[in-house]
Amino acid sequence: MNQSKPSTNNNQLTREGLQNTNKCNKYWISTHLLSRFSYKWQCRIIRTFGVGITCFISSLKPNFSIFSSLVGSIIITIIGFFFPCLIYYQMNKLIISTNMKYTLLLICAIGIVSMVVGSYQSIQEIV
Question: Residue ranges of the domains in the chain?
Answer without folding.
Answer: 84-127
